[in-house]
Please model this.
Amino acid sequence: MRKLYTGVVRCRWLVLALFLLASAACLVLRGLVQVNYDINDYLPADTPSTLAIGVMGEEFPGGIPNARVMVPHVTIPQALEYKQKLAQAPGVLAVSWLDDAADVTVPLSAMDADTLQTYYRDGAALFSVTLSEADYVQAVQAMRDIIGPEGAMTGSAVSMANSATGTMDEVQLIGAFGVAFALVVLAVTTTSWLEPLLVLAGLGVAVALNGGTNLIFGSISFVTNASGSILQMAVSLDYSVFLLHRFEECRAPGKPDGEAMVDALCLSTSSILSSGLTTVIGFAALVLMRFRLGADLGLALAKGIAISLITAFFFMPCLLLCACRLADKLRHRPLVPSFAGFGRLVRRITAPLAVLFLLVIAPAYLASNANQFYYGSGQMFGPESQYTIDTAAIEDAFGKSDTYVLLVPGRDTAVQTALSRDLHALPHVTSIISYVDMAGAEIPLAYLDEATLSLLMSDDYSRMVLSVDVPYEGADTFALVEDIRAVADRYYPGQTYLAGQGVSTYDLMNTVTSDLVKVNLVAVGAVFLVLLLTMRSAWLPVLLVLVIETAIWLNLAVPYFRNTPLFYITYLIISSIQLGATVDYAILMTDRYRENRQALPKGQALVKTVSDVAVSILTSGSVLAVVGLLMGFISSNRLLAEMGLLLGRGAIFSLAAVLLVLPGLLSMTDRLVMGRRQKAQPAHKHEMQRRPVQ
Model:
């Protein structure tokens, strides 16, 4: 490693130029990366609702209804005019209304009451609309212009359009606040006014490289797009900080800058690489999720951390060396007091904190596994958002409702009539649009116009559009999906396809809940293995993983005690993210303790270790916590807000566990921690005869 680092230091200007050129190119490439706002697209390809959507796209034009549009205070003729205007709006593929399910020329009193109230109630018309996936934003804006401020829209397409228009502005605001806070923290914890800018420059290069190389995925989810860069910055900040602090230590004896940097790299490689690898593994474990949003986020973050490691080992040393003379001219007195007093405090409260830690492990674990969950995107927006207000207006007028589409094979109208009758008998099915419901089994197909027939029948399948009075998710919704599939299977065993937002949410629930144990076990097991190989101790991986996992359980126990439901997706993802993002604090603490323990008694080693690493850990941890909390408070998308809140709170729990509990546990299990290591002088005090690096 020394030869490699020596070569990097000697070619510092070339290395800088290569990194800067690559980051400039990636800034351009980042604009070409597509963003996907539909979480249902990340369901496995063999999920029933995914297969259904594929078959429907091949067999029928128009797709599945994905929006509901309400226009109040209209007559039947006026509603028909609105239907025509909506159908002509850009990005609108199809519009269904009362006239598709009943004869609107007859008096309203003569119509079936359930069918009538599904589409028209108290002077308000409710349209079922299908929007093109490629034109959600344009179509939603066009429909808003048609229905005016008194109208209301809801549905998955509207949700995705709102996410697309609002998320990026919020992400930029969160990023700006995060960078500003990181700048303030670095200014306080470093001893030169230039060093914070150098650290942020290194982070900026790493983030740019990761953003541009996301083009290899073709598209990324809105979750990855919104949180990826912020998480990469917050998680990898400590790599540069650790290196910077080591560099200052190695310069202190008066060594040439180049040689001091090589020494700093050699001394910090183990800690930084161990930290980075465990973080990469924690994120990469998300790839094992059958729900492909995990792979989308995990691959992007794992790649980002790997790039941050490369940047820390190659770009940052060159940048620091090229700017160190200017940094020296901008030196200021330390603004952070010594943490020796804090170290002595931690030493005094070792025993009670260890007892408290042991007492909370079991309750935290049990509570973290007893939460209530949301599975889909129906709860994604806060109560003050336009989407939530519109949804509430529609539900107040028409109740909770959704639209499902059922495909059955063939054109046997007698069997389809019996199927329709049984579906109508289900308590939450309010109306059905199908050939046998519109024309009747006794009317020959030749008597129906081709345009209408093409929407209801293909060469191989018949389509039944079901209006249901259940929300997009919940116990009633999931029970209804099971009932519809069971009824359809009685007539066409294993040959039917059912799709709709509630159906996708049902399949999403079954998919993500099966991922939890697998992802967590792989993440913890892989981190354990890396620690076992790098620390060469059987006890330390157990201790470090237990400390961080307990912090994770405490974080996830808070919603349980507050009786606050979580998005299951964030619940599943946050465990790997918090483990990967904060286990490096524990690694740094442990490495420094073992290093100090070689020269000092364990009590003094504890105090010195806390004093040595508190600034580095607090610098990185506080930025991670603040960035997460900013995402939680600023984002109007509740899924992203919840992820940020859990990340920020989790960072605080991990900081407390590492700074207050871990030092005492290391000291109390000193024999297991040190193993057969012999006491010696700290590595940085060894002087070796080497040719100076210029």
Observations:
- The two ends are 17 Å apart (CA to CA).
- Residues 48-54+61-160 form a domain with the Alpha-Beta Plaits fold (CATH 3.30.70).
- The longest strand covers residues 124-131.
